[in-house]
Amino acid sequence: MELEGKTVVVTGSAAGLGNAMIRAFAAKKARVIVSDISQEKVDEAVSALSSEGIQALGMACNVADEKQVEDLFARIVKETGRLDVAVLNAGILRDGKLVSVDRQTGAVKDKMSLQQWQSVIDVNLTGVFLCAREAAASMIGLQSPGVIIPISSVARHGNPGQTNYSAAKAGVASMTRLWALELSRHSIRVAGIAPGFIATEMVLSVMNQKALEQWQQKIPIGRLGKPEEIAATAVFIAENDLVNGEIMEITGGVRV
Ligand SMILES: NC(=O)c1ccc[n+]([C@@H]2O[C@H](COP(=O)([O-])OP(=O)(O)OC[C@H]3O[C@@H](n4cnc5c(N)ncnc54)[C@H](O)[C@@H]3O)[C@@H](O)[C@H]2O)c1
Predict the structure, then answer these.
(1) 3-class DSSP state for residue 16?
(2) What pLDDT score was predicted for residue 83?
(3) Do 13 and 22 form a contact (C-beta atoms < 8 A)?
(4) How confident is the model at residue 144 (pLDDT cuts 50, 70, 90)?
(5) What are the CA-CA distances from residue 56 to residues 31, 75, 84, 181, 200 (Å)?
(6) For the domain 7-250, what is the CATH code?
(7) How far, in Å, from the CA of 99 to the mean position of ligand 1?
(8) Facing residues of 147 across strands?
(9) How far is the CA of 103 from the centre of ligand 1 (A)?
(10) What local confidence, expressed as pLDDT, does residue 39 receive?
(11) Is 195 in the pocket of ligand 1 (CB under 6 A)?
(12) 120: Cβ below 6 Å to ligand 1?
């Protein structure tokens, strides 16, 4: 797909990988829409972009809320008359072990709470489902080709301490494949990205210096990824009409 003049929305794009994607799509002269959970975050991001000469529309949306997601996609079509690329990127972490055991006594001292499980499933799995559903319905309604790019994670293979997150990201990878099979006949491609460990707030805020160094040693290229490296992959998927039904693992060689 040629991106110039196309409408591209990225969920969770006030910060991190999503924000880097907005910049990468804007550099291709696409019309970019910053969406994030609060109006305040959206406004801040839009004005920061504007000060760098990047024009973006801002639309707040909690991806876990069905009505807000329906409204977001209706608004995109109403205000821009198109929907060409939807990157389903919003996500959260609520890490913890399934059960934590006291090393000395052998007693169970903590468990992953249902709330901890459900909050991640709501945003990272249900949020992707709702956004993909509304994006696909909008693209079909407009009768124009589209690309849906769900963001999974290398944790989809099962990362200790991330029962909730790994389950959601495995679900995202599975849905990506099946949506490509369901939607190709409507000229909609679906292909996703499973990033490794990328230097964003999500990773840096939960890792202390020691954990960071340990992880860097495990990454064959010896460093965390950069948000721009994931953003470049999103642009590649959008531009290359042969990419469909794949999850691209962009990790510097690390496996969990
Ligand atoms: N950073 C990494 O190493 C890494 C690795 C693998 C996958 N990912 C995935 O990439 C995506 C982006 O991660 P990031 O590192 O940029 O995280 P981040 O925390 O820096 O940014 C996530 C953004 O999503 C927004 N968000 C959270 N809940 C939301 C909701 N309910 N509705 C709308 N927006 C919401 C946040 O406000 C934030 O702006 C996530 O899906 C994450 O799971 C990140």
Answers:
(1) helix
(2) 98
(3) yes
(4) very high
(5) 7, 15, 15, 32, 21
(6) 3.40.50.720
(7) 25
(8) 85, 189
(9) 33
(10) 98
(11) yes
(12) no
